[in-house]
Amino acid sequence: MFHGSMVALVTPMNEDGSLNREALEGLVEFHVEAGTDAIVAVGTTGESATLDVSEHCAVVRQVVACARGRVPVIAGTGANATAEAVELTRLAMEAGADACLLVTPYYNKPIQEGLYRHFKAVADAVPIPQILYNVPGRTGVDLLPETVARLAPVSNIVGLKEATGEVERVPRLLELCGDRLDLYSGEDPTSREFMLAGGRGSISVTANVAPAAMHAMCQAAVAGDRDAAEAAEAPIRDLHRALFVESNPIPVKWALYEMGRIPPGIRLPLTPLSEMHREPLRRALQAADIPLTR
To answer: Which of 66, 100, 138, 206 is the most exposed place for a label (fewest CB within 10 A)?
Structure first.
């Protein structure tokens, strides 16, 4: 249903932590013009964990309004309480999102049966297309391929964002699920190989700062053109690493600030990028031919 380069969009904030709507509108235009294939609003990179429900919905509504149907909008609506995930998913559907991205419940560490029932309950409650999101490094729980296969027949579960970085999971997931859902990389350094192995796209942090290059790389990789994918990715390969020297979205928000696209705001408990990482990230941006204004 959704293919290619899908940006895990940051949520622009002022220095006091308040939302900056003007910068958010500018980011949407930036991605539409660069060929980004879908925009993921209020996911991990969008600091969903520190937004209240009204802010969460406001960001989704604004991204939908700014996109004006030119690019699909996927709203992050995961939560560690199933009832809250249902509420956020319903609100995102009412706001006009094209689909929702639901992370595995975090902190409470459900077993596989609990994960299955959680995602099934949300899908049954809200008919919008839904993408599962597995990121054990953040949540403390791993959505196993066998559990994904149990969920694949649910008609409105359409994809899986797999952020373990384990490319070897792709053949196993394809074996178990076939074409019943699409697989998306959730880790930029391994995304090219993930797509060449059969993935249908990447939900990317790097796409925030290099959307055209990520679009070109994803387009080639999904088509199975290794040489073209490697050539498109070459200028941004160092960015994949540099944008994760501290917890996401700390580095990418600093990079976008250096590019003049957002104010410097980020919400506690996250803090601005440490001084020692700034020059190496600046060099990676320059090597990718990304213009800086600061």
So the answer is: 138
Contact status, residue 73 vs residue 98, Cβ threshold 8 Å: yes
- Domain harbouring 152, CATH code: 3.20.20.70
CB of 131 within 8 A of CB of 162? no
- Identify the domain containing residue 151 by its residue range: 4-233
Residue 283: pLDDT band with limits 50, 70, 90: very high
Coil, helix or strand at residue 34: helix
Asked if the structure places residue 244 within a domain, the reply is: no
Q: What are phi and psi of 67, to 5 degrees?
A: -70, -35
Residue numbers in the known binding site are 45, 203
- Whether pLDDT at 79 is above 80: yes
Residue with tokens 């969009």: 9
Structural tokens at position 281: 């990230």
Residues known to be catalytic: 133, 161
pLDDT(194) > 80: yes
Strands (E), 170-268: 182-185, 201-204
The reported pLDDT for the residue numbered 1 is 80
Residue 54 included in any domain: yes
| Residue 121 predicted with pLDDT over 90 | yes
Residue numbers in the known binding site for pyruvate are 45, 203
Please indicate, yes or no, whether the overall pTM of this predicted structure exceeds 0.85: yes
Query: Residue 140: which region, alpha, beta or left (left: phi > 0; alpha: psi -120 to 50)?
Result: left
Asked if residue 272 belongs to a domain, the reply is no
Type of residue found at 15: E
Say if residue 191 is exposed, middle or buried (CB neighbours under 10 Å; 0-12, 13-18, 19+).
Answer: buried
